[in-house]
Amino acid sequence: MKILIVEDDPKISGFIKKGLKESGYEPVALANGQEALDHLGVDKSYDLVILDLMLPGKSGLEVLAGMRAEGLSTPVLILSAKRSVEEKVEGLQHGADDYLVKPFAFSELLARIQVLLRRHQPQKSLPTSLAQFGIKIDLLKREVTRGGKVIDLQAKEFSLLEYFLKNPERVLSKTMILENVYHYNFDTQTNIVDVLVCRLRNKIDKDFDHKTIHTIRGVGYVLKDG
């Protein structure tokens, strides 16, 4: 991923550039605000801009305002020695996505970069249906079929089957099922998982020769063919 560093302090710029290269990014460094704005007008392939506020040519806020005026939605992380709340708010109001005060640890800068990049990645469209081993579920209609037969499931049974279908042939422990189906992150000291699996198995496998829900003793359960 390409990252533009706009910083006129060569030590800071070099420090960031070296760290980003070592982290697998493709950094480019510029030291002049006007030059940076002109460059961004030509090369729109950057995934993120790290922008100092105090720059020759144009200030960081002017660069940011120019970017947004030109319709560039590239995420911008401001670096600045200005630390007052008012100055941070001003930067964010001009269209910045984050604000990091100097001096900073590179680990924090990298973490913020990773958050911004994840936030601005195109969202993948979610599946509307799932199918494995002859079992099909329509996530929009909340309908389950196997071999053309409609199977009526309760809410938790449906959630458990969806979890199985998203993880075929993977052993799911009781703890994993508690966390992903019941959203419990602690041991309930009950057999609710066993009961739920039993109910689902009776509905999904009872009338079919090939069984799909299998118990792995002492470990958990797995959805597989036969």
From TrEMBL:
Pfam families to which the protein is assigned, alphabetical: Response_reg, Trans_reg_C
GO annotation terms (biological process): regulation of DNA-templated transcription
Keyword set, alphabetical order: DNA-binding, Phosphoprotein, Transcription, Transcription regulation, Two-component regulatory system
UniProt xrefs under InterPro entries: CheY-like_superfamily, OmpR/PhoB-type_DNA-bd, Sig_transdc_resp-reg_receiver, WalR-like, WH-like_DNA-bd_sf
Source superkingdom: Bacteria
DNA-binding region range list: 127-225
CDD domains xrefs: REC_OmpR_PmrA-like (cd17624), trans_reg_C (cd00383)
4-aspartylphosphate modified-residue sites: D52
GO cellular component, one term: protein-DNA complex
Domain OmpR/PhoB-type: 127-225
GO MF entries: phosphorelay response regulator activity; transcription cis-regulatory region binding
Residue ranges constituting the Response regulatory domain according to the UniProt record: 2-117
Name of the protein: Response regulator transcription factor
Organism: Peredibacter starrii
Highest classification ranks of the organism: Bacteria, Pseudomonadati, Bdellovibrionota, Bacteriovoracia, Bacteriovoracales
